[in-house]
Structure formats: structure tokens, C-alpha cells
Amino acid sequence: MVAAETRAVSGCALDQILVMLHPGMPFLTEELWHKLGARHHDLIVAQWVAADLPTDAAASADVNWLINLISEIRSVRVDLNIPPSAKVELRVESPSEETIVRLDANMPAIAKMARVGAWFFPASPRGQFAQIVSGTDTYTIPLEGVIDLAAERARLEKALAAAQKDRDGLANRLNSPGFAEKAKPEPVERARDDHAARSAEAERLAAALSRLG
Predict the structure, then answer these.
(1) Could you tell me which of 48, 44, 42 has the C-alpha nearest to residue 20?
(2) Cα Dmax for the chain
(3) Which of 41, 62, 83, 140 has its CA 20 to 30 A from that of 208?
(4) C-alpha distances out from residue 182 to 166, 186, 194, Å
(5) Digit-coded pLDDT (tens) for 81-129
(6) What Cα–Cα distance (Å) separates residue 119 from each residue in 71, 114, 142?
(7) Domain containing residue 127
(8) Statement to judge: residues 78 and 9 lie in one domain
(9) Going by C-beta distance under 8 Å and a sequence separation of 6 or more, which residues neighbour residue 80?
(10) Considering its fold, how many domains does the chain have in total?
């Protein structure tokens, strides 16, 4: 009885392991899946592992706060072409006690994943800086000495002009009755996708340019 139960539990655990490994090694896990027993379906359509576990609302909020802040810092770094090797300062305006505790507790992760050297408050921004709003807090990242501000502004302005030109050209093409009525569905759909992509790119570049003031 015990041996049978042990085999059943082990088999169930192995099945779940194969399900979790499948996205990374689909061919091997699919083969093992069928060789380990009779199956009614392929592994690729097996239900993902689900766990009915209690959740910690406070811990979940802390993790979401950390993910959002790191994502915002990374976004600024990409948009403003800040070198990956460059460490930046993070300054926060009027932080709550909760934010201070979170920053202190998570600074090693923020430093590693967002390349932040240190954080300070109050912000007291001087010179050129980028602003980030994450949750209820406003942060600034000083840019002087980190990037060539004049060169970066010129790069963003040039890229923005190109994106806007492409966007407007695609809009004119889509609004042309001759194109919409006579072209095949594939070119029309492709033009719509390209227009959406260039519109989003223009918005991203405009936001990045506004960060420079």
C-alpha cells in the first residue's frame, strides 16, 4: 500500500516537472511524457501547474512595487541611451516611511538590476535630470556626467522626426480611398500594423525627449 502510494505521488510529481520543463525543452519532455505511461493528450496541451496556496498581500505589494520601480528605471536608461555600465543616482521626493523601508530593504536588488549606485532624499534635483513616477512616489535621476545631453537630445529629435514622418505617411496611405478599396487585405493590414508601431515609437521618443526638458 505504501509502495503504491509512493509510486503514485512520485509519478504525479514527475508529470508536473515535465509540464514545467516543457517550454524550455519541448521535444525531450514530450517524448518522456509518452514513454512514462499511456496518455490521453500530448504534453503541449497539458494543464499548467496550479497551486492553491495562501497569498501574502503585503509581500505581493512589495514585490509589485519593486518590479514597477526597476522597470521604470530601466525604461529611462533605454530611452535616454544611458550606458549599461553607468551607475545612476536615484533621488526621491518626499518619500513615505513605507517607501524608505522598501528602498532600504530592496536596494541590493535595485542596484544590481537597474544599475543604481545610491538613493537620496529629498530629491533636490539640480541641472538636467529624468523624472520617474512609480506608484505614489516621484523619483529623479541626475543626468549630467552620465550622458552627453546635447548629443542625446539631437539623437532623439532626429529619431522622433523620422518616426513622425513614417507615421504620417502611413496614415495618408491608409486614408487614401484608392489604397483601402483596391489593395489586397494583407498589404492593408501590414500598413495598419506599421502605422501602429510607428505611432507608438513616436510617442515613446517624444516622452524620452520630454524627460530631457
Answers:
(1) 48
(2) 77
(3) 62
(4) 22, 12, 19
(5) 899 889 999 988 888 889 999 999 999 999 999 999 888 776 555 678 8
(6) 16, 12, 11
(7) 57-142
(8) no
(9) 130, 143, 147, 152, 208, 211, 212
(10) 3
